[in-house]
Design goal:
Elements: H1 2-17, E1 31-36, E2 43-48, E3 53-58, E4 61-69, E5 79-88, E6 104-111, E7 117-121, E8 131-138
Antiparallel strand pairs: 1-2, 1-8, 2-3, 3-4, 4-5, 5-6, 6-7, 7-8
Length: about 140
């Protein structure tokens, strides 16, 4: 019986480690977001899931990643986001580049208090000089 319990626990741990860290289902970043590219008709769509995964489409690229994000903003107002690309279809994104799986980055997200837009920054930059965005929340019907 102990062996069966150990196997079940090991299997459950393997499932959890196959994704990023789960976040609470009502985390304000969970949902569907659009990042329009400046001076272009191209846009990236980010589907951020509570299981700690994202699906990103950008031009011809489709990429999947695993992420962790702070439950609450840091004292600076930013959420800390760590993201690792786990799969990519090898096609070019809106910028003309191909994303390599395995790449891990740390970013900082500043969410507008209304929860409908955010910017993603390379650091906790109060001047927002290292940020991209705005990412705009989409209703599921807009996807």
């Amino acid at each position: 019986m102990k062996r069966v319990i150990a196997l079940v626990c090991a299997a459950a741990c393997a499932v959890v480690s196959a994704h990023g860290a789960a976040v609470r289902p009502d985390h304000p970043l969970i949902g569907l977001w659009r990042l329009p590219y400046p001076n272009s008709s191209c846009a990236e769509i980010y589907r951020i899931e509570a299981d700690g995964t994202t699906l990103v489409t950008s031009h011809h690229e489709v990429a999947e990643s695993e992420f962790t994000v702070s439950d609450r903003p840091e004292p600076s107002g930013f959420y800390k986001w760590v993201d690792r690309i786990v799969r990519d279809n090898g096609q070019k994104d809106c910028s003309g580049r191909v994303t390599e799986p395995g790449q891990e980055v740390t970013r900082y997200i500043l969410l507008h208090p209304a929860g409908h837009v955010f910017v993603m920054c390379e650091n906790e930059d109060e001047e927002l000089e290292t940020c991209i965005g705005p990412f705009i929340r989409l209703a599921d019907a807009d996807a």
